[in-house]
Amino acid sequence: MSFTVAIIGRPNVGKSTLFNRLVGKKLALVDDTPGVTRDRREGEASIGNLKFKVIDTAGLEEKFDDSLEARMRRQTEIALEEADVALMLIDARIGITPLDKHFAGWLRKSKTPVILVANKCEGKAGMPGLMESFSLGLGEPIALSAEHGEGMAELFDVLLPFEKQEADEDAEEEEKPLQLAIVGRPNAGKSTLVNYLIGEDRMLTGPEAGVTRDSIAVEWTYEGRAVKLVDTAGLRKKARVQQKLEKLSVADSLRVIRMAEVVVLLIDGEESFEKQDLTIAAHVIEEGRALVIAVNKWDTVKDRQGALKLIRDRLSISLPQVRGVPVITISALSGRGVDRLMPAVMEVYDLWNTRISTARLNRWLEVMLEQHPPPMAKGRRLKIRYMTQVKARPPTFSLFMSSRGELPESYLRYLVNGLRTDFNLPAVPIRIFPRTGK
Ligand code: GDP
Ligand code: GDP
């Protein structure tokens, strides 16, 4: 499945011309077919190797007999509902008409991202109209000539993120084993936990004689779901030189974290939550993985409430990026509490895979912008036009800005925290990349 683009705008701005250019030869066939209704034309479009579905609304206005405004609005509403993104065309040779203005005012509130396209920009005659179109408040226009095929590269650039989104969705459909890593300092109890999870006997005797504990991945199933356990030094023979392991552990963790989707950071409940634990946790976030913290050797901990509070405090101070990380207390030796570990892993895995529709996202963004508008930069207020999730695993968003200027880190944090709270995304990294239209 590819994404869908709607072409909208008042009559005569060049919608059909653009539609024809995008769809190419195939369209002629469609157009010549008698009985093809004019209320909506759809086609398979491409720009270079970018393929998408395009909806042309030209001609739809003829079907209604009330005011042009009302007709445009209705045709556009229908198209927007189906589209992932809309191209609003204006005629740069004529400039902005009151109808364009009225229409733009209404589109600014649309939940579907709208990209402004100044058509008929070949030569110089379109220049004033192109400049004027900034005033529509739909961001920087793309200068295009549908008739001459100019500006298609820019169109490609702005549409590309919508394809990435689709491609990711397709990739996720294949069921691959969940890649789970257990990391932690030496002696935290990683081997003990792994053995408990996959069954100690099997592990030690192995299907093939002489299975070494050097292996870095073990596959097993949890409630019908394939899980691939990638492990660090914990899987290695304990007889190995302990000192060397100690030195290697952070680098090893990093390697394993990169292979994983969900990382369980195992900490030793007998010791305090140390800098090295935080360093590993920070790596998990930096690498964009989902995190679960397991506090092991809970059987030996006397002041349980105090120990938990200490861990939570340290986390909230040092790793505010992953507010809400599950902290599970276990005893790997007896297996106590381990039954709560895998459900937590599955839960953060699902969160890590979260997808938020562009419509929901932009409804949310509107409220966020209203509550706390973006700051000024060089005397101008930074404008955010819309937002779309470009990928999951971890949730990653493009924020489309219509003016140049850097969005401060604090504002991005405001949006990240908002996403985390409003879409319930604890324990997973959230990334937002601001982009400025060309
Ligand atoms: P629609 O009503 O929005 O579908 O507009 P059309 O595609 O039918 O185009 C309206 C008129 O504008 C036609 O005469 C087109 O040939 C012309 N037109 C479309 N694109 C361009 C362009 O890029 N440059 C120029 N100069 N004319 C164009
Ligand atoms: P690794 O280096 O992280 O793989 O740690 P190990 O699994 O080798 O465990 C280190 C030590 O901690 C061993 O002596 C384990 O028996 C002990 N240990 C592991 N889990 C627990 C637990 O839940 N409770 C207690 N009391 N000891 C544990």
- Enumerate the distinct ligands: guanosine-5'-diphosphate
Helix/strand/pairing category: alpha/beta
Strands in their spatial order, largest beta sheet:
2-3-1-4-5-6
CATH superfamily membership of the largest domain: P-loop containing nucleotide triphosphate hydrolases
Average pLDDT value? 80
CATH class of the largest domain: Alpha Beta
State the helical fraction.
25-40%
Strand content: 15-25%
CATH architecture of the largest domain: 3-Layer(aba) Sandwich
Radius of gyration based on Cα positions: 28 Å
Q: How many helical elements?
A: 14
CATH T-level topology of the largest domain: Rossmann fold
Distance between the first and last residues' Cα: 27 Å
The low-confidence runs, each spanning 5 or more residues with pLDDT under 50, are 26-39, 60-64, 200-215, 233-243
- The total strand number stands at 17
Largest sheet: 6 strands, mixed
Describe the fold and architecture.
By secondary structure, the protein is α/β, with parallel strands linked by helices. The protein folds into three domains: 4-162, 3-Layer(aba) Sandwich (Rossmann fold), CATH 3.40.50.300; 178-353, 3-Layer(aba) Sandwich (Rossmann fold); 358-436, 2-Layer Sandwich (GMP Synthetase, Chain A, domain 3). Helices cover 39% and strands 21% of the residues. The protein has helices at 15-23, 25-32, 68-82, 98-107, 127-132, 152-172, 190-198, 200-205, 242-259, 275-286, 304-318, 341-352, 358-371, 409-422, and strands spanning 4-8, 41-47, 50-56, 85-91, 114-119, 142-143, 178-183, 217-222, 225-231, 262-268, 290-296, 327-329, 376-377, 380-381, 384-391, 396-401, 431-436. Strands 2-3-1-4-5-6 form a six-stranded mixed β-sheet, with helices on both faces. Helix 9 packs parallel to helix 10. The radius of gyration is 28 Å and the shape is elongated. It starts with a strand and ends with a strand. Mean pLDDT is 80; it is low at 26-39, 60-64, 200-215 and 233-243. One guanosine-5'-diphosphate (GDP) is lined by residues 184, 186-192, 234, 238, 296-297, 299-300, 331-333. Residues 184, 186-192, 234, 238, 296-297, 299-300, 331-333 line the site of one guanosine-5'-diphosphate. Residues 3-167, 178-353 form the EngA-type G domain. Associates with the 50S ribosomal subunit. It comes from Sneathiella chungangensis.
